[in-house]
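Q: C-alpha cells for this one, please.
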Amino acid sequence: MDFESLVKHISTIQNTLQAQAAHAVNLALTARNWLMGCYIVEFEQNGEDRAAYGEQLLKKLEQRLKTKGLNERRFREFRRLYLVYPQLKEPIAQYITSQIQIRHSVCAELIEPIRRIPSAELRTAKEWIIPADRLFNKLTYSNLMLISAINNPVKRAFYEMETIRGCWSYKELERQIASLYYERSGLSQNKEALSALVRQQAALLQPKDVINTPVTLEFLGLNERALVTESDLEQSILDNLQHFLLEMGHGFCFEARQKRILIDEDYFFADLVFYHRILKCHVIVELKIDKFRHEYASQLNMYLNYFKAEVMLPDDNPPIGILLCTEKGDTLVKYATAGLDPNIFVQKYMIELPSEEEIKEFITSANCQ
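A: Here is the predicted structure, written as C-alpha cells:
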C-alpha cells in the first residue's frame, strides 16, 4: 500500500461511516418525534385527565419537561407529523424493536400506543403514495416536518418523491417549495426534463446537513419552451398580472415594466408601475417568486421614497406599493413593515395548479424507476 492508497482508504472510511452515523441519528430522531406525536394524540383522545389540561396541554408539557428542544412549537410539529403520517406505524415499530440496546420491557412500553392505532387511520394504499418504509428511511426528519405542513396530499407526495430522488437538504427543499416547483411542474410540458434540471441545480444532502440542523443538535443534547425555468415563470406571472390589472379598469393606467431607477451610482428596477387616475397616485408592484423576506419590504419602501422625491407632481397623492409573494407570514410582515411607508401592502399570489391526475401519473412513473 502506498501513501495515496492510505489517503484514499481513510477518506472512504470517514465518508462512509459519517454518512451511516448521520442516517442512524436521523432515524432515531424521526422515530422519537413521531412517537411523541402519537402519545400526545392518544392522550388528547383518551387521557383520563385530558379535560384538566385542554388547550394548554402542550404548554404545560413544555413547562413540566424543561428539556431543550421540547417546547410547545415542537410538540405541535410532532403531533402534525403523526396525524399526517400514521402509516409510519410499521417501520417505526420495527425500528424500535430492532434496537438491541433497548430493554425488552422499555421497547414494549414505547410501542404500546402504536398497537392501538386503528387501521382506518392509515391512508388508503394508492399507487402514487410513497411507501411508508421508504419515507422513514429516505427522508430526514427536517424534510418530513416541512412536507407535513403541506395540506394537499398530491402536492405532499410530489415533494416526498422529488426530495428522495434528489437527496435534497432541508434548505434545498424549502427553496423548491418557496419557488413553486410543484406549481411550475404544471406549467411545463416536459415534467421529466424540469425534474432533471432541478436535481442538477439542487444542493444534494450531505451528512453535515443532517447532523448540523438545530433540531438534531437539540436531540443530541449538543450546545416550445417546454421546460419552464424560474425566469420563464416570472415572465408568465408578470404578463398575467399586467393583464389582470389592466382588465380591472376604473383608473389603472399601465406605465412601465422593469422601470429603471438611478440612485447614486446604482440602477434598480421596479417590476411594474401603474398610475391610478382616480386616486391620482402611482402604484408600484413588486413580484417575488419566493416567500416574503424582510428585505423585500425595505426595497419597496425605497422605491416609494424615490417616487415621492423624484417623480410625484405637486397635485399627486403619495405612491402605493404592492408586494406579491408566494407565501407570507403575517407576523413577519407586521414587524418588517412597522415604521415603513403605510402605503406598502403585502399579498400572497398563486398561479394555476397542475391537474392532480397529471401529478399522480408523474409520481407513479417516478416511483417505478
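A few notes: The beta strands are 252-263, 266-276, 281-287, 320-325, 344-348. Residues 3-46 form the longest helix (44 residues).
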